[in-house]
Amino acid sequence: MPQQLGAEGQAALRAILQAGNLVDLRWPDFSDYGKHLQKFYESYGYSLPWVRGMEPSQQAKQVISLLSKADQKGLNAEDYDASRWSGRLAKLKPASSHPSEEDAVRFDAALTVCLMRYISDLHIGKVNPKHFDFNLDVEAKKYELPTFVKDHVVEADDVPGVLAQVEPPYPGYRRTIEALNAYLEIAKKYDGRTLPAAPKTVAPGDSYAGVPQLAHFLRLLGDLPPDANVAADGTVYQGALVDAVKNFQLRHGRVVDGKLTAQTLADLNVPLTNRIRQMQLALERWRWLPLSYQKSPIIANLPEFRLRAYDENFNVAVTMDVVVGKAYGHDTPIFSDTMEYVVFRPYWSVPYSIARAEFLPKIAKDPDYLEKKGFEVVDSKQDVVASGAVSADVLEQLRAGKLFIRQKPGPKNSLGVVKFIFPNNYNIYFHDTPEQEFFEKSRRDFSHGCIRLEDPTDLATWVLRNNPGWDLEHIRAAMKGTTTQQVNLAHPIPVLIVYATVIVREDGLVRFYDDIYGHDAALEKVLEKGYPYPS
User: Fold this and answer.
1) pLDDT attached to residue 296
2) Which residue of 39, 189, 346, 464 has the lowest C-beta tally within 10 Å?
């Protein structure tokens, strides 16, 4: 039975709740959870649900154990007072023979605050993604925390089992948790010494003073097999060690050539604490994902330059490289939406910003520029105004935004021969591209924001799999046809544009990517400030 309080004890509890602040906590300001705590303690008549006979309940002990291991979930255990619980427990029975009501009140309130923070952080993340102008909505996922804690945790036989259910259910999240814990162990075994610099690129067969240290590090990471034969005092960079570096380069989104370039050495010298931090930030973003993610979605991860379409059992059905928006000015936004239709042989309506910056100066120099490049001028109803030379009057109307430029359909169209539409405020979509050479590069941020597909035929086949008659042959015919054709999907498909600089694929390899848009840096800056976080 919850610990009943006398008048002074109740007054102390009410004062803490009224203030929304408890100095005992690492992060004392819990005003953002104030209403939750008021409702929680009100439901208990302002008694203490975590204290029984002036002793912590068994459930309280289980909660404290979990909070103390929060690092294993990609959170910071100190955010939940990991080092402070022993001192609090020492003031209650059985450690103390005469505990005070005030100590019991402060213990109980601290545990409730930390537990509610932990549940929320684990379920929807610490920071609302809308703070970063990401159009991902976590509101629908939020728990009614007072009710959840009272109904599912306070009297639970298995608190860890209950709280395991609040985590994201996605396989990629679970793989990232496993990788994080592996790297936490690796960090304990590696002294963090920097590999020696090289005056020039070290090619296979060259001498390199850092061979023993490099072999040791790559063994810990798993890139070099445990039984690989590398001399402990060797100085020649060769054999299995070259293959291990290739694997390392693959996992870090670099050109896989086995050479110790300045970039590869820089990647090797990134502190493991930084890699662990990347995983923590990736896990935060996993927690932002909407519930529709579980229903056969298409997901594009921007730093990875990769798209995946998942089947009904959440297995990867289609995957391919993509080109995304340029850093510094044309970032592809982060959002979720629903794909509704596909357009074969599309026109490309040139956005005004691109027309003004890139097209109008060329038209001014050469009135025939649009005709030469396969473009035409249209009005707001998409009726053609000029398909040949652009007159001075038409040019002025283009400058004023009264007329528009569009590119005619065909293989040279900037959208290629198919685009995939999920209507959104950003006017972002997936599309084919005639510029296939960009897929040869390891870093692929070259677009104005939309996402270019390496193999649009594969995606079209998967997207239209539930549309009768739209098999591969029909799709190829539409791509090669002469008419623009819109096909509405029989079943709309969730689309997610996400941002994770760490991905653990189905093969178990941990892959790291550059923070191309600076989103990791921005998230870390907010997290460093502590509670309360932007809601």
Assistant:
1) 87
2) 189
Where b means 16+ CB within 10 Å and e means fewer, 377-408 reads bbeeeeeebbeeebeeebbebbeeeebbbbbb
For 348, 442, 446, the CA distances from 330, given in Å and listed in that order, are: 18, 19, 9
Residues 364 and 440 in one domain: no
For residues 236 and 310, state if they share a domain. no
Domain that holds residue 353: 349-408
> 247 and 166, same structural domain?
no
Which segments of 374-529 does DSSP mark as H helices, in order? 392-399, 456-463, 472-480, 519-527
- Paired sense of beta strands 445-447 and 316-325, if any: parallel
In a domain, 276, yes or no: no
Would you give the distance in Å from CA 88 to the centre of its chain?
37
Model confidence, pTM: 0.93
pLDDT, tens only, 394-439 = 889 999 999 999 999 998 899 999 999 999 999 999 999 999 999 9
Q: Confirm if 21 and 29 have CB atoms less than 8 A apart.
A: yes
What are the start-end ranges of the H helices in 297-446? 352-354, 360-365, 369-373, 392-399
pLDDT score of 535: 84
Contact yes or no for 369/363 (Cβ under 8 A) = yes
Radius of gyration (Cα) for the chain, nearest Å? 29
19, 116: one domain: yes
Helix (H) or strand (E) holding 211: helix 211-221
The pLDDT assigned to 290 comes to 84
d(C-alpha 117, C-alpha 113), whole Å: 6
Cβ–Cβ < 8 Å for 225, 311: no
Letter string b/e over residues 335-368, b meaning 16 or more CB atoms within 10 A of that residue's CB: bbbebeebbbbbbbebeeebbeeebbeebeeebe
Give the pLDDT confidence score for residue 229 in this predicted structure.
87
Ranges of the chain with pLDDT below 70: 292-294
Burial (CB count within 10 angstroms: exposed 0-12, middle 13-18, buried 19+), residue 327: middle
